[in-house]
Design a protein that fits this description.
With 270 residues, the protein is of the alpha/beta class. It is built from eleven helices and nine strands. The strands form two sheets. A six-stranded mixed beta sheet has the order 1-2-3-4-6-9, sandwiched between helices. Helix 1 links the parallel strand 2 and strand 3. Helix 5 packs across helix 6. The protein is globular. The two termini are 20 Å apart. The model has no long low-confidence stretch (mean pLDDT 96).
């Protein structure tokens, strides 16, 4: 697929999705929001792609939502009727939410590899990813408060579940910068690497390890963990029982057992 604001490639079984507006610090204009959803649909539907890695070109991961996009929104929602204008704005917000929720909907694991700035909409983006890793130069900020906005595309819903309510409230209320080392302490990221090169090398290795696992079981893990986050333990147990009743007896299981008996690396179908 061809994109204006993303650079997408498939190397082996790992898809790289790079935010590609380096001259604007990868500020998220409307096209980027929409293309992220298309990229997630492509990742989900491409059998050969088993894992996705989202990164940013240039000096920063992303500066967040493009302020020019916010300014243009006034014209987009203009209407003589105030009620209809507000309805249009609500639909715009819901659609932007959906572009990042597409990362959760994608059946394949998605890893965020963060360097430099990750602010505003960037926090919304990474919180929707399965795993997050950063370099030591990375910094994070729930910046919306400083421009008079309440973050509305997923940060306030997902961040507290990642780092706890108290820490999330502090970041949302103050907009302060959170460095890479502190992000690791707060469990926003799983690991903080010395520099971008070390980060990307580690992500290639990690993504390769994940891609080598049984695809059907991997997709089940993502489905179940996300479901359990939003439901009771009893609901989660009931769902996994139903899932495995349908998916457990697969060729992936046969291959894993055969590889174990024959003391060789398993080879799973896409």
């Amino acid at each position: 697929m061809e994109f204006q604001t993303l650079k997408v490639a498939l190397t082996g079984q790992v898809a790289s999705i790079e935010l590609n507006r380096p001259e604007r610090a990868n500020a998220m204009e409307l096209a980027m929001w929409l293309e992220l959803r298309e990229a997630m649909r492509w990742l989900d539907e491409t059998a050969a792609a088993r894992v996705g890695v989202i990164s940013g070109a240039g000096k920063h991961f992303t500066a967040g939502i493009d302020l020019g996009m916010l300014a243009g929104m006034q014209a987009q929602i203009k209407d003589d009727c105030d009620g209809r204008s507000r309805e249009k704005l609500r639909r715009v917000i819901l659609d932007l939410q959906d572009t990042l929720s597409s990362i959760e909907r994608c059946r394949k694991p998605v890893i965020a590899a963060i360097h430099g700035a990750c602010v505003g909409g960037g926090i919304d983006l990474i919180c929707a990813c399965d795993l997050r890793y950063c370099s030591a130069d990375a910094f994070f900020s729930v910046k919306e408060i400083d421009v008079g906005l309440t973050a509305d595309v997923g940060t306030l819903q997902r961040l507290p579940r990642l780092i706890g309510e108290g820490a999330a409230r502090e970041l949302a209320y103050t907009g302060r910068k959170l460095g890479g080392a502190e992000a690791k302490e707060l469990r926003l990221v799983n690991q903080c690497y010395a520099d971008r090169e070390a980060l990307m090398a580690a992500m290639r290795e990690l993504a390769g390890q994940i891609a080598a696992k049984p695809p059907l079981a991997l997709r089940g893990c993502k489905e179940m963990i996300t479901y359990a986050r939003d439901h009771s333990v009893a609901d989660g147990l009931n769902y996994i029982a139903t899932w495995n009743a349908a998916m457990l007896l697969s060729t992936d299981l046969d291959e894993a057992l055969a590889a174990g008996r024959e003391k060789r690396a398993p080879k799973f179908r896409d």
